[in-house]
Amino acid sequence: AEGSTHTLMATVSQYACQRRTTTENNNKIFTDAFEVLAESYEFNEIEGRCLAFRRAASMLKSLPRAVRCLGEMQDLPCLGEHTKAVMEEILQCGCSFEVKKLLSDERYQTFKLFTSVFGVGPKTADKWHRRGLRSFSDILADRSIHLNRMQQSGFLHYGDISRAVSKAEARSLRNIIDGAARAITPAAILALTGGFSRGKEFGHDVDFIVTTPELGREESLLPEVIDGLKKQGILLYCDYHASTFDVAKLPIRRFEAMDHFAKCFLILRLEGSRVEGGLNSAEGDGRGWRAVRVDLVSPPMDHYAFALLGWTGSRQFERDLRRFAGAKRGMLLDNHALYDKTKNEFLAAETEKDIFAHLGLEYIEPWQRNA
Ligand code: CTP
Ligand code: MN
Ligand code: MN
Ligand code: MN
Questions:
Q1: Which of 161, 169, 288, 320 has the fewest CB atoms within 10 Å, i.e. is most exposed?
Q2: What is its EC number (predicted)?
């Protein structure tokens, strides 16, 4: 077994889209440490180092077993001097001194706390930290601080939306969205995407594609679905973005840029009675409901496969798909389209399999994309 595993490790690709990564992580001891380091670089806007640690963690997650010694690291891609040094220390001492120091660092702790609020990113966290604010009560007591609508909802529903969403809750939400969409048009198409479509047991939200076969109709479908949820009295927050999609636009290079499809970021009220097996968390504090984050995106049907591939994730898998498309195939890929720069043409796709085929990649199932 030792020999064959070693061979497997020797052939690991540097691209997540050429690896199969399930939810089983055999290298959690290393990847948890890397995530703290990546976060810290993210808080300090050192993007290169942040990505290096995320890329290394992603590679380790794909391995069939734990890395056990320094020698095994030599054949693995995505590991630089810094990442290797951290791993070596963990192998020798059981933990990383640098990570331990960060976890007890006041700045790291404050950024971690502030960015855990829906609508608060590193920039806002930095602004608040510079003002000497250190806790939620500091922020809420400071009258000179203006919270936008998203942040207000973030604080209002903090307890609920920072609690993990279960598969059963995702199923209940699916029924709710499905009902709302079907009430508008029986032809509505609803697909679960994001972490739950990759087989994750828990998520921070639930992601869906909701659209219709009739081209152009999807743009008005989403506002109507939102209106339906509002009429049911379960819409607690809605950040709606109308479509700015233009078929002629080339795929965008920046990964973090938002796509152009009609979409919304919601907070919904999930009634306990609709959840099979009860809603433990909400029952715990005497309510029959909880607030939950839901994302809906409405691509036109002829771009469905790209939207599905883009929203299934993981983020690292998406990053590497794009990086691979550019570096290895001379193509541009984003959530809308695939463009071949050598042929100067868009490559159409009806399914995710078509896109993998265009890229000359073996098909990777959604549950193998937990990179
Ligand atoms: N996504 C996107 N554009 C956005 C938001 C998300 O393309 N404005 C994509 C992300 O790239 C990701 C997927 O949608 O691949 C799901 O994002 P998210 O819900 O943040 O992550 P999950 O993988 O679902 O993990 P979690 O369980 O934490 O929600
Ligand atoms: Mn999600
Ligand atoms: Mn997430
Ligand atoms: Mn999401």
A1: 288
A2: 2.7.7.31
Q: Does the beta carbon of 259 lie inside 6 Å of ligand 1?
A: yes
- Whether residue 125 is found in the same domain as residue 197: no
Q: Which of 207, 259, 320, 334 is catalytic?
A: 207
End-to-end CA distance of the chain: 24
- Strands 331-333 and 206-211 turn out to be unpaired
pLDDT tens-digit profile, the chain (371 residues) = 444 455 556 689 999 999 999 999 999 999 999 999 999 999 999 999 999 999 999 999 999 999 999 999 999 999 999 999 999 999 999 999 999 999 999 999 999 999 999 999 999 999 999 999 999 999 999 999 999 999 999 999 999 999 999 999 999 999 999 999 999 999 999 999 999 999 999 999 999 999 999 999 998 999 999 999 999 999 999 999 999 999 888 998 777 778 999 999 999 999 984 444 444 555 456 789 999 999 999 999 999 999 999 999 999 999 999 999 999 999 999 999 999 999 999 999 999 999 999 999 999 999 999 99
Asked about 295 being catalytic, the answer comes back as yes
**Residue 368, Cβ neighbours under 10 Å: how many?**
17
Which one of the listed residues 126, 205, 320, 334 is annotated catalytic? 205
Which CATH number do you get for residue 341?
A: 3.30.210.10
Please check whether residue 177 is in contact with residue 225, taking contact to mean a CB–CB distance below 8 angstroms: yes
Inter-residue contact 278 to 190 (CB < 8 Å): no
In the numeric block, which tokens belong to residue 108?
């790291």
DSSP 76-138: -SS--HHHHHHHHHHHHHSS-HHHHHHHT-HHHHHHHHHHTSTT--HHHHHHHHHTT--SHHH
